[in-house]
Amino acid sequence: MAKVIFEKVRKDYLMGATTIHVAKDVSFEIKEGELCIILGPSGAGKTTVLNLLGGMENATSGKITAAGQEVTALGEHELTDYRRYRIGFVFQFYNLIPNLTALENVELARQVCKSPLDPEESLRLVGLSERMNSFPAQLSGGEQQRVAIARAICKNPDLLLCDEPTGALDTETGKAVIGVLLDICRNMGKTVIIITHNSLLAPIADRVIEMKNGQVESVSIRDEPVGLEAVKW
Amino acid sequence: MVNMLQKKVFNDASEHKWQLVAIICVCTLGVALFSGFNLYASTIENELNRSYSRFNLADYWVYKSGISPEELAKVRNLPHVTGAEYRKLIDLSLYESEDSTLRIHCMEGQGEINAAEVISGEALAESDRNALLLDYRFAQAKGVAAGDSLFLGMDGQREAWFVKGIVRDVEYAYYAPNGLTIPDYDTYGFAYANASAFPQVPFNELILTADEAAEPQAITAQIRETLGVVNIVNRSYHASVGKIEDDLSGNRKIGTLFPIVFFLTAALITWITIGRIMESGRHHLGTLRSLGFAKREIILRYTFYGALISGPSLILGWLVSRFFIASTLYRIATTYYSIDINGVDLLSIHFLFAALGVVIVTCGSAYLSCGNSLKFAPATLMRPKSPAAGHRILLEHISPFWKRLSFSGKIVARNLFRYKSRMAMGLAGIIGSTALILCGFGIMTSIGAMIDKSFADIIKYDAEVKLKAPLSVAETAELLKGIKGVESFDCAFSFGITAYGVNGNAQNPYLVVLEDAQSSLIFKDAQGNPVSLPMQGALITPRMNIALDVGTGGTIAAEGIDGTALALKIAGIIDFPVGNEIYMSQTAFSEISDSPFSVRAFFCKGAGTDVSALRHDPRVAVVETKEEMRENLNIVLEIMQEMQIMLIVFSGLLSIAVMMVLGRMNYDERIRELATLKVLGFHKDEMKRLVLRENVWITAIGLPFGTVASYFLLRAVLSLAASPDMEISPSLNILWIAVGCALTLAFTLFVNFMMSRKFKSIDMVASLKSVE
Description:
A: 10 strands; B: alpha+beta; 10-stranded mixed beta sheet; 23 helices; about 50% helix
């Protein structure tokens, strides 16, 4: 069953008199429990696609369906509920609340959910059980990103959307973070969508969508993705 | 290049336009309040000083019956005396309008001292008999113009006087004789006539001017040596000059202390806000440095940021101070100061002080913040500054409290302590504006309490009647026959005296001698304990006690207007907020003076007392009911009440502006955090609870401190505003504290409401982009 369906989705920005087409007739689908990687160079429209899917932006035209809901038909309030109950977001720059400890950052997300996971358990899953009471400034970049992932999975979302989650990390840390996301997909059965420009990650994904100039250039499906250890960074 | 840099500074400013607008408002209010009150006072003072010198106001007034030309010549020849004239002083009633009295000064020739300013008509010629120059206020009240005739006299004897001119005189700038609380132009006026018009009346008043080197005590001694026993009043104790000086000095003191507190609050907020704005734009500074702009160049341009705030603040502040504050107070003042109304001056030196303050605060803050940022390398500046590290706060160690705190409460508490300067700014603003608002209310309730104390606790009579000529007690009883509602009356023998303190100071109170068994005035000491009228010695107010530095048991030397000496032993000090007279019992007075007790005034008591019939009795000078006194006192306090309303309104505006700056700063600096919350699925109301509750917390923390501060501020303001005639004790009840605090809280909630509209428009994508 398809978890995510994009049908001829367009996103235009009006910049003065000029219209910029950042997503042009984007169509693809992602199945439940898949790890999907959206690849592409800078300006390809990857982040726009993720933002549209996450309900952070409205499409100019086309239809997006995710977790059985037609996202493009939702109003402001419903979109907030959609993000609240269905979506977990992981950002490139973590966006943790600086004056809350790791545990409290995760608890913050739990505040707004119907069936959240235990925050301490979420932090254990990302390997941070020892640093729960540290503030973001006391954590390394990789650790902060793992807190952000714990915050996202604690909400027990249908979709985990990750925008360049390793973009601000060194190779080893980045690899560890991807490992966590892979575990969440494989062990918890969550649908995980990762945006990256690092094509070396492609072999671990069940589905790879390549984008260029706001369009989907290719979609490839791997029946037997490789493990993280097989990826050369 | 420089022009582009200039343009960049403007662009940066427009990014923070609302914060700048709020800061401009705060600075405008500070400048307006500080310079407005002082501009009013200095306008009146300048106007008076100009008139005093233009019309040659006397330095001394000397009263003695029968001053001869030889004595006048001797006085003229005294060292330091630059001029002397004598006059005949006569009070005459208006025919068939006996309650109206004209005080006529009769001179030989054109007087040069206290010269009258002819407004319409002509000056008197030496040959003019039965012609006079009439006070313009009295003329207005009576509808008399130059060229009209006026009938003076009583008991069927009338004499027509030709009104040759209408005049104003500096010695009557404030004229409220006979213990009136406010001028009554329909009842009391003055006039000038030639001395030859009253050949039978001797010269009884001498006015003289002295040079600047003259020592008041030496001059007084010389005059006494020349003229014998006389009553001498120097300029500072003259009824008009002294009264206006007291008023203005009180207003000026309130107008200095209160605005200084206001200004300091505004300055602190401005300083912190500009610093934060500069800090938030540090990456721009890095870019400019990397492009090759010199530090000095950048600092100079960004200091211009301060000028962007100072310029509009000073212009607006001046407009508000000149055309609202000073004009309003001036309009009220000129209804009872008879001065030349030329409008409010354009500027006073205080505006320059305020301007300097604003420029130093705004430009100084921009200069220092910019300079501090530029100490870093351009690359460091271009990187986003790492956010202040979160840490545990003291409250977290109080486990029972912290555990009970909601999750959002914990976030708010941590946030408050994380951004200390923001909290300091918010607290300073709230404490300052709460203190100022409550002080404004405090002035109002203290005036109310003072009036209540005077008219409910102290004054127990229903009307006071002053007589033109002394009567006996039996005659007074006769006078009161047929007057409705009078159940009892107490007689008083009162007359003006000059009292000299051990410190050399002099005061001109009335000595009020009351019947031993009187019940019209209830005296109490400062602790509120009843004090009975002593059978030996006199009672004085705390103000008189301080002015004369005497103390209970001490003795003050006094002299009556005719020069009779009296030694007044102080038997007690009484809490008497309005008026500054000396009270004695008839028995106590008989021990120090041979003068018989004659009735000069009496107090009537009785429910439904109607003394209106007495107003037209030729023997009666003044009739004032308790309600009229209360009303008149309110009129006297009008300037202060107007100031207090301005203080409340301005403090409220300050509070709104502070919360606006704080709310905006909180929003701008946390936009990334807010966008994250929005992405996480927080609804608008939930985000508002997290962020805007912070303002409510700051307000709640600031209110108790503001209340305590208001008490000290109120005490200071009222003690500065105290005049010899009036003392207002600080009194602020719980109801008004609650109203003031509720107002401050309401302003915070209003600002929160305004800010909450912004939450709707948070752009998650734009806010979460990496910092470029």
